[in-house]
């Protein structure tokens, strides 16, 4: 429990190795749950404060009259995925209609 409080990203296998006792991962999870520690996904982004919202609104209002040429000079670095070229490194597979899996 102390390890999980000090380092929230510690894994059950790390805890198990540090304890030095043969223990199953479910037991570790159960003990952590009894201490009100549950496995959750971390926040991807912090919630916006009223000040952040105000600054975003001001930024948008200052650029409300921009034309296409002005916007073409802007790069947004949010968490969206986009591809500038034609290859997105995704493997595509050709299939016939109704064919779901072909081992060849």
From TrEMBL:
Single GO term (MF): DNA binding
The Transposase Tc1-like domain, residue ranges: 2-62
Pfam family, one: HTH_Tnp_Tc3_2
Gene Ontology terms: biological process: DNA integration; DNA transposition
Source superkingdom: Eukaryota
Protein name, per record: Transposable element Tcb2 transposase
Source organism of the structure: Trichonephila clavipes (Golden silk orbweaver)
